[in-house]
Specification:
This protein is 18% helix and 36% strand. By secondary structure, the protein is of the alpha+beta class.
Length: 864
C-alpha cells in the first residue's frame, strides 16, 4: 500500500506502474479519509518499479469564483514513488556437490550440479551453467564478484518515462506552497609436481538436463591447496543463480616452495622449502635437490617430523652468470616408506649488470673490412665480447634492434605495440589486441595505460598506421571505434589538448588524417580543418602530408602539391658521410608527440620507397637511415618498429641476388666462418675479449653481398651517479627492524627517492630495483596492509599515471614532469635472507632519451 498525500478531499487517480515504459495502469477513487493506493506486486516487477499517481479533482460547486481567484476550479497533482521488489521469481538455487571433499594430486573430481527455481522446480529447458574451478589462494588476493550474476542482473533500473498532460490548458496553474514532508517518488610412478595453474577448468556452457542437473569431471593439477568450484546458472529469459563448493588436494607428506620468483646473477641466498607431515605418526624425512644450471651438488638433508609438524629446509647457493633460469627439482621421502613428494619449480634469472651493446656497425661485405677493437677498461671479466652476425638481407641484420626490443623494460601500450612489431611476434600482437579494449576511452581513442582518463589521438594514429604498414589486423569493432575517434578529433567534435602549451594542433590532425588515409577513411574536406603550409611544418608533418597525397587521389591540385612536398623534403635532406640528417633537425624533435629525427629518417625510407623519382637516391637514403643507429639501434621504440618494417621492404625491393660462398671473421689467432650453402639464413659468432687491442678482419668469397653486424658487448657496472637532465638521491628508511644493526627477514623498509628535473618533459618513468624475494606493499590485493603504506610521501606537482609493483622493481610512469623537485616513496617487506645484487636506479624520458639519470646501488644483505 502507498499513501497518496494530496490537497483534495476526494479525487480520481490514474495509477500506473512504470519502468522503461508503462507496464500497467488503472483508475481508482481516493478520499481524504483513505488516501491509500493498493498495488499488487508481481515478480516481474523486480528489481524495482515506479508507481505514478495522477490525481484529478473536478470543480467544487460550493466555492464561488471571485474576480481574482477561482479556488473551486478543477485541479490535479502528480506523485511518483519507487518500490524495491524481491528477486525470488528470478532466482535459481544452484547446488554444487563434489563426490568427496579431499583428493590426491592429479586425481579427477566428479562434481554434480543441480539447479532449482525458488519453488523447487526444474528450470526451463535449455538452461545451462558456466563452470570454473579456481585455486582459492588466487581468490584470497582478489575476490571474483563477476560470479554473483543474480545481483548483477537485478541491479536497480532507471525511471526512463516522461509523463505529460494537457490539463494545464484547461485549468491553469495553482501554487500550493511548500510542504512540510518531502513528496513521494524519485523519479603410476612417483609424480613430480610441476603443474601449478590457478585455473583448473573453465567451461562456458554446460547444459542441464530435464531435472536441472549436470555432472562434470574436473582434473586436479599438482597444487596442494583448496579449489573453489563455481557454477553460474541461467535459465529461460530471467532466471539466474550461483552456487559453489570447495575441494582440497592433499597427501601425507608434502613439500612447498619458498623460492623467490626472480633472482639476479651473483645473488647469494638460501633456497628454502617447507616440508609437512600430515599423518598421525612421526617420520624421519630425507630431502634431496637438483638445480639445472647449478653445478655444485647439494648434500641430502635429514629432518625428523613429528605428527602434523612442518619444517623449513634449504640449501645455500650463489647464482652463476649466464643463466636465464634455475630449474629446481626437490624430493622428500621417508626411507623404506612409499610416503614421498617431488616438486619442480623455476626461478627466472636476470642480470644485475647486463651485457650491453656499447658500439656497433652495420655494413655490406663487398671487400675486406678491417676494424680495430679493444675491451672497455671497466668491463666485467669473462663477460661480453665482439659479436659478428652475418645475414643475407638487410632486414635480417638488425640484431641490435632485436636485442634492444627483447630486453626493453618499460611497458605502456605504445611500447608493447612497438615491441610486437619490431620482433614480428604475431602471438604478442594478438594478446595486445585482446587487451586494447581496456585501453580505450569512450571516444575510441587509445590510452597509454588503462588507468589514465583520456586517450591520445597521437597514440591511436600510430597504432592504426603501424598495423596497416605491418599487415596486422585490429579487431573490426575496435578498429572502427578508433577510426571514429580520429575522425572526430580531426573534425573538432573531440577535443584533446597538447601535453605542452604549443601550437601543434595542425600537426596532430595531420597525423590522424595520415592514419585515416591508410584505411580509406580520409576525405579531402577534412583538410579544411588545418592551414596547408608544408614549408613551415616540421619534417614529421611533411612526411604525413606526403603519405596523404600518395593515398588520397581526390585532393584538389594533388599533382602540384605532391611535387611541392617532395621538393621540400629533398631540400631538407643532408648526407654527411654515411649518415642522413635533416636541415631542420633542431626543430623536428617533437618528443611530446613521440617524434624524433630517427623516426623521421626511417619513415622517410617507407614513404619514398615506392616513388620512381627517388629510385636512384634510395641506396643513399637507406644507408643514411642505417647510419643514424647508435649501439646497433635507433633511439625510440617507435623508430625501431618503423625501421624493421622499412628495412623489410627494402630487402624485398632491392635484394634479389642470393648469397653463396663463405664469409670469414678473423681476430688474431681466432677464425670463424659461415658457409652459406650450409646456413642460408646466415649465422653469428662471438670473439671473447682479450686484454690487448686487436684487429678484426671480415671477408666474403662467393656471390652476393651479405650484411654484417659487428657489436661490442660488455657488462660495465655504474660506479658514480650520472645525470643528464635528472638527479636522483636514494634513502633507505627502516619502518620495522628486528635488529638495529642489520636487516632481517620480515623487516619493513621505506624506499625514498628525491628527484629533480632540469626541464619540462612528458612521459617520464622512475625505475628502482628491489632485492630478490622482497614484496612491494600497496598493491591492494588480499592481506596487503594499507596501514603500512599510509606514511608514504609524494611531494611535488607530479602524480603517476601508472605504477608497476613487480617482483623485480618499482616503476612509476608520469605523463608530465615539470622542471623542479619531487619525491617518490614506496614500502617493501623483506621476505628472503641472503645477499642480493641490485642494478642501478634510473629516471628516463621515454621519448627524449638524452634526458636521463642513473645512480648505482650496493648489494642488499638480509639476515635470517
Amino acid at each position: 500500500m502507498l499513501q497518496a498525500r494530496m490537497p483534495f478531499q476526494e479525487a480520481t487517480a490514474l495509477v500506473t506502474i512504470e519502468r522503461e515504459g508503462v507496464m500497467e495502469s488503472w483508475v481508482t477513487k481516493l478520499s481524504g479519509e483513505k488516501p491509500v493506493i493498493e498495488v499488487p506486486v508481481k515478480g516481474s516487477y523486480a528489481p524495482n518499479v515506479f508507481v505514478s499517481a495522477l490525481v484529478v479533482r473536478g470543480r467544487v460547486g460550493d466555492v464561488q469564483p471571485t474576480a481574482l481567484a477561482d479556488l473551486g476550479k478543477p485541479s490535479y497533482k502528480l506523485g511518483i514513488a519507487e518500490i524495491m521488489v524481491g528477486w525470488k521469481e528470478h532466482e535459481l538455487k544452484v547446488n554444487v556437490s563434489p563426490d568427496r571433499p579431499v583428493y590426491k594430486v592429479r586425481e579427477r573430481a566428479q562434481v554434480r550440479i543441480r539447479a532449482r527455481t525458488a519453488d523447487d522446480k526444474a528450470p526451463p529447458a535449455g538452461s545451462e551453467v558456466a563452470l570454473a574451478a579456481v585455486d582459492e589462494g588466487l581468490l584470497e588476493l582478489m575476490p571474483n564478484k563477476s560470479w554473483d550474476i543474480l545481483p548483477a542482473m537485478m541491479g536497480r533500473r532507471g525511471y526512463e518515462v516522461q509523463t505529460a498532460t494537457a490539463q494545464m490548458q484547461v485549468i491553469g496553474k495553482r501554487h500550493y506552497g511548500l510542504k512540510a514532508l518531502p513528496s513521494g517518488g524519485g523519479g603410476g610412478r612417483q609424480i613430480t609436481r610441476e603443474l601449478f595453474d590457478t585455473l583448473l577448468v573453465w567451461k562456458g556452457r554446460v547444459g542441464l538436463d530435464a531435472n536441472g542437473e549436470a555432472s562434470v569431471e574436473i582434473p586436479l593439477n599438482d597444487s596442494i591447496t583448496g579449489f573453489r568450484v563455481v557454477a553460474v546458472a541461467t535459465g529461460g529469459q530471467g532466471l539466474f543463480g550461483t552456487g559453489s563448493a570447495s575441494i582440497q588436494s592433499t597427501q601425507d607428506l608434502m613439500i612447498f616452495s619458498g623460492l623467490a620468483p626472480i633472482v639476479r646473477e651473483g645473488d647469494r641466498f638460501r633456497a628454502e622449502f617447507t616440508i609437512r607431515n600430515t599423518m598421525q605418526k612421526s617420520m624421519e624425512v630425507e630431502a634431496s635437490a637438483r638445480a639445472k644450471g647449478i653445478f655444485a651438488p647439494f648434500a641430502p638433508l635429514i629432518a625428523p617430523l613429528a605428527a602434523g609438524e612442518a619444517k623449513t629446509i634449504g640449501w645455500d647457493i650463489r647464482v652463476p652468470v649466464g643463466l636465464s633460469a634455475i630449474h629446481w627439482e626437490v624430493e622428500v621421502g621417508e626411507k623404506g616408506s612409499p610416503e614421498n613428494d617431488r616438486i619442480k619449480v623455476s626461478q627466472k634469472v636476470i642480470p644485475a649488470v647486463a651485457d650491453r651493446t656499447f658500439q656497433a656497425t652495420n655494413a655490406q661485405l663487398e671487400k675486406e673490412v678491417l676494424l680495430e677493437i679493444e675491451r672497455p677498461p671497466d668491463a666485467l671479466p669473462e663477460r661480453g665480447g665482439v659479436r659478428v652476425s652475418l645475414s643475407p638481407r638487410i632486414a635480417q641484420s638488425l640484431n641490435g634492434v632485436t636485442e634492444y626490443m627483447m630486453s626493453y623494460p618499460y611497458g605502456c601500450m605504445e611500447q608493447k605495440i612497438s615491441v610486437a612489431i619490431a620482433l614480428q611476434d604475431e602471438n604478442l600482437w594478438k594478446r595486445l589486441m585482446a587487451q586494447i579494449a581496456s585501453h580505450m576511452d569512450s571516444d575510441g581513442l587509445v590510452k597509454y595505460f588503462p588507468t589514465t582518463t583520456l586517450g591520445s589521438p597521437v597514440l591511436t594514429s600510430y597504432i592504426v598506421a603501424i598495423a596497416h604498414e605491418a599487415g596486422r589486423e585490429i579487431p573490426e569493432g575496435l578498429r572502427e571505434k578508433m577510426e571514429t575517434g580520429l575522425r572526430g578529433f580531426v573534425e573538432g567534435s573531440i577535443n584533446r589538448g597538447s601535453p605542452l602549451a604549443t601550437a601543434d594542433l595542425s600537426i596532430r590532425k595531420l597525423t590522424a588524417m595520415e592514419a585515416l588515409s591508410r584505411v580509406d577513411k580520409m576525405e579531402p574536406r577534412l583538410l579544411g580543418s588545418i592551414a596547408i603550409e608544408p614549408n613551415l611544418w616540421p619534417t614529421s608533418a611533411l612526411i604525413d602530408w606526403l603519405n596523404i597525397l600518395l593515398k588520397e587521389e581526390k585532393i584538389p591540385n594533388r599533382g602540384s602539391r605532391l611535387k611541392e612536398a617532395e621538393q621540400i623534403l629533398r631540400s631538407r635532406l643532408n648526407f654527411q658521410g654515411t649518415t642522413m640528417t635533416f636541415s631542420t633537425e633542431r626543430t623536428d624533435t617533437l618528443w611530446w608527440l613521440m617524434v624524433s629525427n630517427d623516426v623521421n629518417a626511417v619513415r622517410t625510407v617507407l614513404t619514398l620507397l615506392p616513388l620512381k623519382s627517388w629510385k636512384e637516391d634510395m641506396a643513399r637514403v637507406v644507408q643514411g637511415a642505417l647510419g643514424r643507429q647508435k649501439k646497433g639501434r635507433w633511439d625510440l621504440t617507435l623508430a625501431n618498429a618503423w625501421g624493421v618494417l622499412a628495412m623489410g621492404k627494402v630487402s624485398k625491393a632491392f635484394e634479389a641476388e642470393p648469397v653463396s660462398g663463405i664469409s670469414t671473421g678473423r681476430l688474431s689467432d681466432q677464425s670463424r666462418s659461415v658457409d652459406w650453402g650450409v646456413s642460408p639464413k646466415g649465422g653469428a659468432f662471438l670473439f671473447p675479449w682479450r686484454q690487448r687491442r686487436e684487429a678484426l678482419t671480415l671477408s666474403h668469397s662467393g656471390t652476393g653481398r651479405p650484411w654484417v653486424t659487428v657489436q661490442s658487448l660488455a657488462a660495465i657496472p655504474l660506479k658514480e651517479p650520472f645525470s643528464s637532465g635528472y638527479r636522483i638521491e636514494k634513502k633507505v628508511i627502516p619502518l620495522e627492524k628486528k635488529n638495529p644493526d642489520r636487516w632481517s627477514r620480515g623487516d619493513l623498509v621505506r624506499m625514498r627517492l628525491d628527484l629533480e628535473a632540469q626541464s619540462d618533459q612528458t612521459w617520464v618513468v622512475v625505475s628502482d630495483p628491489i632485492p630478490a624475494g622482497a614484496t612491494i606493499l600497496g598493491t591492494g590485493l588480499g592481506r596487503d596492509s594499507r596501514l603500512l603504506t599510509q606514511g608514504e610521501e609524494g611531494t611535488g606537482v607530479v602524480w603517476p599515471a601508472y605504477e608497476e609493483r613487480s617482483f623485480e622493481a618499482f616503476r612509476a610512469y608520469y605523463e608530465y614532469v615539470p622542471k623542479g623537485k619531487w619525491i617518490v616513496e614506496y614500502t617493501v617487506r623483506l621476505n628472503q635472507s641472503g645477499t642480493f645484487q641490485l642494478p642501478s636506479t634510473r629516471v628516463d624520458a621515454l621519448y627524449f632519451p638524452e634526458m636521463m639519470g642513473e645512480i648505482p646501488n650496493v648489494a642488499f644483505e638480509v639476515q635470517p
